[in-house]
User: What shape does this take?
Amino acid sequence: EPCGLNQLYAMHYGTVPVVHEVGGLRDTVRHYDGMNDGTGWKFERAEADKFAWVLGQAVYTYQEHRDAFVGVAVRGMQQDLGWDHAAYMYEQKLLEAKYAH
Assistant: This one.
């Protein structure tokens, strides 16, 4: 699905998502590259080799860098995905646009 709630449920309960980078999936999952504060793994093109590569990165991190993998899961669980936070962020964007001139 292009967005939905599955990746949000997954992160809330500590399941690290591997997603196709489209729609809301692009917005709700931050790609982990070993050097940042990502919450999962994303691939851009819907091609088997792209999916296999990024899944391999996730498995490699799990097997060889368990602390980093746990960090990805914990960051996903710590996100504030509630409506109050979403409404606040939306309001901030509207104010930013209003006063951008």
The first helix runs from residue 6 to 12. The beta strands are 18-20, 41-43.
